[in-house]
Amino acid sequence: MKTFNFQILQTLFLVTFFFNHIPLDAQTYGKNGMVVSDNILASEVGIDILIKGGNAIDASIATAFALAVTHPEAGNIGGGGFIVLMKSDGEVTTFDFREKAPLKANPDLFQDADGNLIEGSNHETIKAVGVPGTVAGLYLAHQKYGSLPWAELVQPAVDLAEKGFPMTWGLYQVAMRMSELDDSYDIMKNYFRNEKGEIIQPGEIWTQTALSNTLSLIRDHGHNGFYKGPVAEEIEAYMKAKGGIITKEDLAKYTVIERKPLKGTYKDFEIYSMPPPSSGGVALIEMMNLMELADLKNIEFNSTPYVHLVAEAMKRAFADRAEHLGDPDFNPDLPLDRLTSKAFAKRRFDNIDMTKASLSDSSLYGQLYDGSSTTHFSVVDKEGNAVSLTYTLEHSYGVKMGSSKLGFIFNNEMGDFNPVAGVTNSRGQIGSNPNLIAPEKRMLSSMTPTIVAKYGKPYLIIGSPGGRTIINTVFQTVLNVLEYDMRIDKAIEAMKVHHQWLPDMLVYERHLLSPDTRDALEQMGHQLRGVNNLGVLMGITYDPKLKVYVGAADSASKDGGAVGY
Length: 565
Ligand code: DON
Prior knowledge:
Layout: H1 2-18, E1 28-30, E2 34-37, H2 40-51, H3 56-70, E3 80-86, E4 92-97, H4 121-124, H5 134-145, H6 150-163, E5 165-166, H7 169-178, H8 186-189, E6 205-206, H9 209-221, H10 224-227, H11 229-242, H12 248-253, E7 257-259, E8 262-266, E9 269-273, H13 280-293, H14 304-324, H15 336-339, H16 342-350, E10 375-380, E11 386-392, E12 450-454, E13 457-462, H17 469-482, H18 488-493, E14 497-498, E15 506-509, H19 515-523, E16 528-531, E17 538-543, E18 548-553, E19 561-564
The structure holds 6-diazenyl-5-OXO-L-norleucine.
6-diazenyl-5-OXO-L-norleucine binds at residues 370-371, 373-374, 392, 394-395, 413, 416, 445-447, 465-467, 470.
């Protein structure tokens, strides 16, 4: 009897151990590499590439294309984003494949005759679409640092689109919602239907023929498969038909820029993150510098002083973001060194009052707590190359329009520009000059793909969707790991707050902050608002004792998962 029990136990253990999908805990372990993304099929695609001998950039390219098929809410070929890459020799670089404003864009594109913002026009119309950057970004990253042939990296996505994969409950819920859209949302209304017009049910195989054809052209012709030839022709034709302004010339002129990362430090750690046109790196480093000055050893996580302090840091970093940041190619004098310096943080820290909230502007509050729909993934390979990649379709499924001949959705990224010069208001609209619209300019982003290193090796690879909340959820997760010594799954799940200077509102994760702390914060002058969730973080840490990578996907992700090998 004893032996029998032991055998069952042993079998259960072996099954559990060898099948990564039955995790022993909320973390996944990988001696040789790891991919953590918003869709488990895409993570598996990335791991297959690593197993075939590809490096972290190869795996990232394959994962990104796979997400464009399996996680269409934000995985994309119609949007843009950023890569932070740390190579095994310790050198760090970044790729900026942020969308650009079309040549026909001008500063008053979204204003009425009186110069007021036409509500919604910068998010919900075809003119809100930016020139896509994703395919160009992945292609350049491959040319510079890839090792396997390009076609091998795109093929898994072609297969997923052509042969299909089972509809998940997560996608099905979206399909139900999208089917109620009106006819102007051409592609989106029918996105999740079969040839008979029926919505694909959970468990049924969902194929995307038009998308697989577009991906095949990208597989065969690389960058030019998207920016020239039939895809470019159809993008222009669609834009013309719908009143959009993107032309073949915009596509032909689109370029990716490899930029120097922003570097900060926190105690023994080096923090590498994205420079402008993302504001993420600047704000993250400014806030970490502020935290380094605080006596965090005596400030308990999630206590009133903790929440107050991080909120005050956020207000300051977001005020600086609003005032100073924009596309560096149009703003050659961005004060990046100053904003990320320890001396600047000291001045900012010294005017924090630990007994009361500083005022931003309290008269109104409302918009701009962007939902999900950007997606982040983290990758590491056996040589220690690490990739932190965030790319986006704004507002879930971008502008929800696109040519059904091409099978992908365009992105309304123009909404990230400041729409009206000089108009900064308590609803969160910003009107500073560095981020006004201009032809070929890149709009300011909050995406914060980040790699933290210790002694020159990747220690934490992290990022998230969530519009402006991205900066703050990444900031708090980094702090949780570096300062509060949390394991990666706990750091990701732990209570987060968000303050973006304007509106003057401290957003917190409902159910995770005690009523007493909320009362105390209100007494100090904070205006609170509870939300169900902040961030969908995808992280990898390195455990130096076990010598293993440890990954975790946020439980807020519908279909996400970490896969290690
Ligand atoms: O680049 C940015 O900061 C935004 N376009 C990201 C958008 C996002 O995360 C969620 N969208 N609602």
